[in-house]
Amino acid sequence: MAANIFANVTTRGVKAEFMEAMDGAPTVWDKHCQIIPSDAKDENHAWLGTLPIPRHKLSGRNFQSLRDFTLTITNRTYEMSYVIDRDTAEDDQTGFVARANQDAALAWSTFHDSLFSTLIEAGTSDNAFNGTSFFNDSHTIGDSAAFDNSLAVSMTADNPTLANMEDGVKDMIAAMALFQDDQGRVGYTSQAMTKLRLIVPATYLRRTTELIKSQLTNSGSSNPYYLNLLEVDMLPNLTAAADDIYLSAVGRSKRMPFIYQARTNLEIVVYNSTEHIADNDGLKVLTRQRFRFGYGDPRFCVLNTGD
Amino acid sequence: MFPFNKDKTVWSEKNSNIAHRAITAQVKDDLIARDIRRGVPADHKTYTVTNPGDERGTFVIDPDLAAKKHSGLDSRLLRRARWAEFCSVPQNEVACVQKYEAELRAEVAATRIADGERVILDDSLEEDAPKRAVKTSSLPKPKPEEAAEPQPVEATELIGAK
Questions:
Q1: Which residues constitute the domain of residue A165?
Q2: In a domain, A131, yes or no
Q3: Which end of chain A is more exposed for a tag (fewer CB within 10 A), N or C?
């Protein structure tokens, strides 16, 4: 009987390879999402409003209820299954099997970013918890003034200059700083804005990197964004033609602009018995995970689109 | 995409931005007006209060109203169409920017009125382009000779006024 060339490939070993490769893969989504564990088919997210405005105590206490918005996010199941061909593995002299598993792990990582890109780009159509599209020019939440997190300013050029980019980012930050809570108070975004991240398509990477890495602006004055005010994440899946950039405020871990609802961890099953390998003519690997991306607080993300 | 003048010179980037802002604001106003015509409450709130007996006051979205409210995509498509239309024919850069600048001044003044600040209405301004034109005590009245012969406008102090 021929030796089983996959005898050393175990589920535990493949999982270790997966985790190592996934840990090393650069991802964007996890920097912008609040990770929420899920233990059911769907989760009912309660968006508890902010606390009432303190008042001068006169005679007794004045109990007020919090605004409570709800949003249900249903988990989805994703899978990736593949067979490593027996003939190829038999002839391999350079660690093909391990590489294939690492490539598959990388594919999982980039798949998350791909879904995250789709979520962001659909934000002009799909609703946030307040019943308004996530990116909209006239949001209201509770008693807040109408706010606009879908800007179209200072970016008329298809290929923005550094000055365009600087103006665009300045407007996005200024807009976000004035967003109010559901009691109509400004300052709601202050804590979240202690960490700001830009999400850009590949075409804008050069300009935005220039924006945060140049000590001086084109006019020779000091560049405020040089002082670690911003970090840039490039998402290659974003449609370059859209000319959109996004500013996320991620300094408040319990309220983020986006949600990652994690139902199950990545499951990996490896069929490495002699019978399975003969039956499948190779090493069959099944992977599966249940999760769902969703929208969080629209006050923590601003879109700036160039026309 | 930039507008161009009758002599085929392209508008400056700064003035293009002023025009773009004005068109964006108009699109927003038009879509909000459409929402209201469709039945969305004038304060744009698309949710309704349920469980009035519940002290916590749970809010849920009214799906019908939410569906009637314009989306970010509606704004983008309409704005792009109007911007493309604006850029497709020659435009008078000086006149347009002066008009938009006056509208922005009126907008700023209107905001100050809403904040309770005392402003002085100027009827002579209202006869011209901006229908909400007002003159605040801090804004100097334009001199007649300036109005007769328009000068190029940079309007730097209005860039951040929104």
A1: 11-49+68-304
A2: yes
A3: N
Each residue's pLDDT tens digit, B79-136: 989 999 999 999 999 998 898 888 878 877 877 776 666 555 444 444 444 444 344 4
> How close B144 comes to chain A (CA, Å)?
32
| A198 domain residue, yes or no | yes
Give the C-alpha separation, A169 to A303, whole Å.
10
Write out the two tokens for B36: 């209201």
Domain-embedded: residue A59? no
Reduced to 3 states (helix: H, G, I; strand: E, B; else coil), residue B119 is strand
Residue A214 · residue A226 · CB < 8 Å:
yes
- Residue A284 maps to which CATH number? 3.90.1690
- Say whether A176 sits in a helix, a strand or coil: helix
Nearest chain B alpha carbon to A132: B66
Q: Does B12 touch chain A (CB under 8 A)?
A: no
3-state secondary structure B20-76: HHHHHHHHHHHHHHHHHHHCCCCCCCCEEECCCCCCCCEEEECHHHHHHCCCHHHHH
Instruction: Please give the ipTM for the structure prediction.
Output: 0.78
Task: Decide if A291 is inside a domain.
Answer: yes
Most A CBs within 10 Å, among B48, B61, B74, to test the A interface = B61
Chain B CB within 8 Å of residue A164 CB:
yes
How many structural domains is chain A composed of? 1
**A69/B47 Cβ within 8 A:** yes
